[in-house]
Structure formats: C-alpha cells, structure tokens
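In line with agreed milestones, the collection of sequences with tokenised folds has grown. A representative record is reproduced below.
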Amino acid sequence: MENKSMKTTTEENRFVLTCDAYTFAHEAKNPNYVDLTFRSGLGGAFFIASGCDRDDGIDELIELSAPAVDEADGRVCVTFVGKTT
C-alpha cells in the first residue's frame, strides 16, 4: 500500500522518515540504533544488528555504515551495510 503522506528529511547527521503511522529516524551520534515511534506514542530505539550480534565475539558487529536512502515509486528503502567478525 502506497503512503501518500510519507516525507523524508535528510540532514548532515540525521535521517527522518515520517508517515501516517510512524516516524523512523537515524542519527549519526547514535549510529547503531534507529528510533521508531508509532502514532500512539509507543516505540523505542532498536539495535540495527540485533539479528546477528551474539555473545563471545561470535558474529559481533564491528562496523556499520551510515544508512543509504533510496526513494522510488512512492516507497523508501533504507539500507545499512555492516561487517561482523
């Protein structure tokens, strides 16, 4: 479903995607997290690499790029490239 009220704002150290249901943000000062806040006020900071980061140095995140943002056909794709051990 296309979100006609979606707005992206890109500044030097911050990216914000705002739409009807939520706001998604990434700031360079907190590079390993994204903030997701729903219209109801619920939300929080989410660790980007939470699906791969493990204990004991196994698959541990050691590098993470700034997000690449691609807008096309009413959609926004935000991609992070990381490196693990």
Summary: Residues 48 and 68 are 14 Å apart (CA to CA). The two ends are 38 Å apart (CA to CA). Strands lie at 7-10, 14-18, 22-27, 33-38, 43-47, 61-64, 68-72, 75-79, 82-84. DSSP finds no helices and nine strands in the chain.
